C-alpha cells in the first residue's frame, strides 16, 4: 500500500518531465529541419551566439524561431480551449473547430481582410474575437435548447449548422475579391509558416490572458463536472463559470485562428490524451491537472505535424492543419464508434 | 439518441390511417402549385439576361420557331442552364428526402454527412493537380461521392448502423475531406484556386447540354428506384425493431436507399457542384407545405427544382453584370432554415 502511494506521487513529476522533455526535443527538431537542414550544433550555436552574420543564423532567427514559438503558443491555446470546451459542455466531442468557433473567428478575419482591407494582425484580431464569441455563444445556446439539454449530437449539429452558414458567407466574400481569396486559401488550410516574430509577440498577450482565465476556471470545472446542482451547492456559480469559460475560449481560439488559421480536431484529441495520461499518473479527472497537461500536449502535436508537413513533400509544405485533421478525424470516428457518448 | 419524432396529427389526418386517400388532395394540390410556380420561374429565367426576350418569343424559341438569334440564345445558352438547375434541384432534394427519412433526422442531409465533401475533394484534386485520369470532372465527382458514402457507411457499421452514428461519422469524414480540399486549394495556382472554389460553392454558370444530359439519364434510372423503395422506407421510420418485425429487411433497405441517395447526390454534384443546403431544406419545406409527418418524395423533388431554379434566377439578376454562383444564394437562404430546424428539433426533444 505504502509503495503504491509513493509510486503514485512520483508519477506526476515523471509525466511532466517527460512531456517537457518531449516538447523541447520537438522544438529542436523544428529549428533544425525544413527546406534547409541545419545540424544541431549549428542550431545551438545560432541560438546562443545570436550572430546575424551567416545565412544559417538568419534562417534560424527570422524563420524557424518565430515559427516554433508560434507553434508553442497557438498549440497551447487550442489545447486549452478544447479541454475547456469539453469541460464546460460536458461533451467528449467538443472541439473549437467542430463547434463552429474557428469558423466564427475565420469569418471575422475574412470580413476584416476582404471587406475592410485591414492588413495587420492587430487590425483583424478583434474581428476574430468577435466572430469566435458570436459563434460559440450561438452554438452553445442552440445546443442547450430543448428538453434533453446539451447532448453531444445536438452540440455537434449546431456546430455544423453554424459553420455551414459562416462558410457560405465567407465564400461569397472571397469569390468576389481575388486578393482576399489568395490570403484566405493559405490561411484556411491552417499553417505555422509565413509568420514573423512580431506576430507571435502581438498574439501572446491575448493567449496569456485567455490561459490565465482558463486555468482559473479549473477548480470550478471540477465542481461543475458533478452537475450544475451540486456545483451550486458547493458554492460555485455555474453561470459565472460559463461566462468566464466562454471568454477564455474566445480569446484562446480567436487569437490562434487569426494567426494560424482554422485547425480542427486538435482541441478534440488533446484533452482525451491528457485524461489518459492523468489517469496513468494517478491524478484522476482533475481539471487543475487536465488543463495544464493539455496545454503541454497540444503544442507538441502541432509542432510534430508541422515538422512532418515540412518533411513529407519537400519543397512543398503540407500545412499542419491538414495533417492534424487526418490524424484527428479517425480519432473522432473511433470515439463515435466506441463510446456510448456519455458525458465527460 | 433513439428518441424519434412523433408524427403530430395535422388537420384531417388524425382519425385516419396514414395512407388514407384523404391525405392526397393536399399533396396533389401542393405538387401542382409548386409545379406551376416552377414553370413560371423557368419562363422568367429564360426571358431575362444580358439580352431580354419577351415571354411570347421565349415560347416560340423553345418550340424552335421565331427569330433564329432568339432560338440560339434560348436553346443553346439559357435552356441548358435552367434545365441543369431543375434537374440538380430534383436530384438533391430527392436524395435529401431519402436520407432524412432513413435516419429519421432532418439534419442528416448529404451535405452534413460528408458526401458532397467527398465529391468536392475529388473534383478539386482534378482541377488543382490538372490530371483527371481521362474521366472528366463529372465522373470524378461521382466517384468521390460514392467513395465517401461507402466510407461513412462502413465506418458507421457496427453490427448494423444507426442514424445518429451515420451523422457523427459523416461529420468526421466531411472534416477530413474539407481539410484535404483546403490543402489542394492552397497548393495550386491562383486561377485554378478560383475555379476550384467557384466549383465548390455550386455553380450553374456556363452549364451546357453536356452536363444536363448525363444527369437526366441518371435521374431516369434513380428516381423510379428511389420512389419504389419509398414504401419500405416508411416502415423504417417506426424504428429498426418495429420495421424488422413488420418484415422489412432493415439493413438491406437502408443500403439500397443509401445507394440511390448517393447516386442522386453524386450525379447532381458532378453537374453543378455541391449547391449548399438544397438537399436539406427542400424536403423540409415540402413536408411542411404538404402537412405530412415525413418528407414526401415527389413533392420534395419539385420543391428542390423550384428552389434551385429560383435561387439561380436571383443569383443572375441580383447584381447587374455579375453572375453570382447559385450556391451563395441557397447558402444564405438555407442557413436560417437549418438553424430553425435545429431549434425545432431540440424543442421536440429529437435533435439528438
From TrEMBL, chain A:
GO terms for biological process: siderophore-iron import into cell. Its main location: membrane. It is a multi-pass membrane protein. GO terms for molecular function: transmembrane transporter activity. Keywords: Cell membrane, Membrane, Transmembrane, Transmembrane helix, Transport. Gene3D superfamilies: ABC transporter involved in vitamin B12 uptake, BtuC. It holds the Pfam family FecCD. SUPFAM superfamilies: ABC transporter involved in vitamin B12 uptake, BtuC. It is found in: Cell membrane. It comes from the Bacteria. The chain crosses the membrane at residues 97-118, 124-143, 155-176, 196-225, 246-269, 289-308, 320-337. InterPro entries: ABC_BtuC-like, ABC_transptr_permease_BtuC. GO terms for cellular component: plasma membrane. Belongs to the binding-protein-dependent transport system permease family. FecCD subfamily. This is Iron complex transport system permease protein.
UniProtKB/TrEMBL annotation, chain B:
The chain crosses the membrane at residues 27-48, 82-100, 112-131, 137-156, 212-232, 252-280, 325-343. It is a multi-pass membrane protein. The keyword Cell membrane applies. This is Iron complex transport system permease protein. It is found in: Cell membrane. Pfam families: FecCD (PF01032). Keywords: Cell membrane, Membrane, Transmembrane, Transmembrane helix, Transport.
